[in-house]
Each structure stands twice: as structure tokens, then as C-alpha cells.
UniProtKB/TrEMBL annotation:
GO terms for cellular component: membrane. It is found in: Membrane. This is Twin-arginine translocation pathway signal. Residues 12-26 have a biased composition (Basic and acidic residues). The chain crosses the membrane at residues 49-68. Residues 1-26 are annotated as: Disordered. It comes from Mycobacterium botniense. Keywords: Membrane, Transmembrane, Transmembrane helix.
Length: 203
């Protein structure tokens, strides 16, 4: 009787162990696989979001650099270019315009736009050549800028191409004669003002 009662007990215990052991091994494996699949789905879902955020951040940085650094520099450059064009245009008009009745005044006005060797040359040339001829032949000439553009621009120098129409009258030919001309004006900044250092006619 003792043997018959113990036999079923001993035979049942190994079956219970065999069913629990596989379950105990499979549950962690299933759990890990679920976690891995979840992590992959999260990574797949967040990848475009992270990429989009990175692109937006890059664009924001580029926009900030453009508006806060590049644009102010560009505005400054544009302003300086306009100043150079204005100085070259006003100087060219003053240099090429005079009337026999007001030669001294016209030449003095032109000299305020000039500097360096060109100022010295202009003073000598107008005194020795232009003034006697203008008085003798009663020559009057007026220049008008048609267009002008910056060719070179540096902190203390600039080159501006100036295109003009010149209207000239003389005692022998009182009918106005209009001629087109162009000059390459080299500017130098002196005490904060753009002055003409070279004045080269273009063919």
C-alpha cells in the first residue's frame, strides 16, 4: 500500500516540473521580444520627427545668421555703395561743368570733390588751359549723370563708372551740342568723405 500511494506522487512531480520549466524559460524571451519590437516601432516613429526637428533648427539658425549678421552687413554695404556713387556723380558733374561768367566759383566748387594728385592736376590744368580758353571762346559746359555703378568697393576706396551727357555751347556755336561720355572715377575716403583721386575718361 505504501509503495502504491507513493508511486503516483513521485510520477506526478516530474510532470509538474517539466511543464513549469519551459514556461519559465519562454516568458522572459517573449517579454524581451515585445520590448525590442516596441523599441523598433518607437525608433521608426521618432526618426522622422527628430530629422524634421533638426532641419527646422538648422533653418532657424541659418535665418538668424542671415537676418542678424548678413542683412545688416548687406545694408551697410548698400549704404556705402550709394554714398560712393553719389560722391562720384556729384564730383564728375562739378568737374565737367563750368561757365565763363563764373569760372572761379565753378572751379572752386569742383576742387571740394577732389584730393591728392588729381586735385593738384585739376588746379593747374583749369588755371592754365581751361580758364583762358573758356573766357576767349565763351565756352560753357554742363554735365548730367545718366547712370553710375560701383565697380570696386573697399573700406577706404572705391571705383565708380559714371556715364554722362555733356551739353556745350560756345560763342561761335551757340546751339547746344550734346555728347555722351563716360569716366572711371577712383574715390578715396578722406576724413569720412569720399573724394575723387583719379578721373579717367573711358573710350
Amino acid at each position: 500500500m505504501t509503495v502504491d500511494q507513493e508511486s503516483p506522487v513521485h510520477s506526478a512531480e516530474p510532470r509538474q516540473d517539466s511543464t513549469e520549466t519551459p514556461r519559465g524559460r519562454k516568458e522572459p524571451t517573449r517579454f524581451v521580444s515585445v520590448i525590442v519590437r516596441w523599441a523598433r516601432r518607437c525608433l521608426a516613429a521618432w526618426r522622422p520627427i527628430v530629422l524634421t526637428a533638426a532641419v527646422v533648427a538648422a533653418l532657424g539658425l541659418a535665418a538668424g545668421v542671415y537676418f542678424f549678421q548678413y542683412r545688416p552687413d548687406q545694408r551697410v554695404d548698400d549704404a556705402v555703395a550709394r554714398q560712393a556713387i553719389r560722391a562720384a556723380s556729384d564730383g564728375a558733374v562739378a568737374t565737367l561743368s563750368y561757365s565763363p561768367e563764373h569760372l572761379d566759383r565753378d572751379f572752386a566748387k569742383a576742387k571740394t570733390h577732389l584730393t591728392g594728385d588729381f586735385l593738384a592736376y585739376y588746379s593747374k590744368f583749369t588755371e592754365q588751359v581751361v580758364a583762358p580758353t573758356a573766357r576767349d571762346k565763351h565756352i560753357a559746359t554742363t554735365a548730367k549723370v545718366v547712370r553710375a555703378a560701383v565697380s570696386e568697393l573697399h573700406p577706404d576706396s572705391a571705383v565708380v563708372l559714371v556715364f554722362l551727357d555733356q551739353t556745350t555751347t560756345t560763342k561761335d556755336k551757340p546751339e547746344p551740342l550734346v555728347t555722351a561720355s563716360s569716366v572711371r572715377v577712383t574715390l578715396t575716403k578722406v576724413n569720412g568723405s569720399w573724394l575723387i583721386a583719379k578721373f579717367d575718361p573711358l573710350l
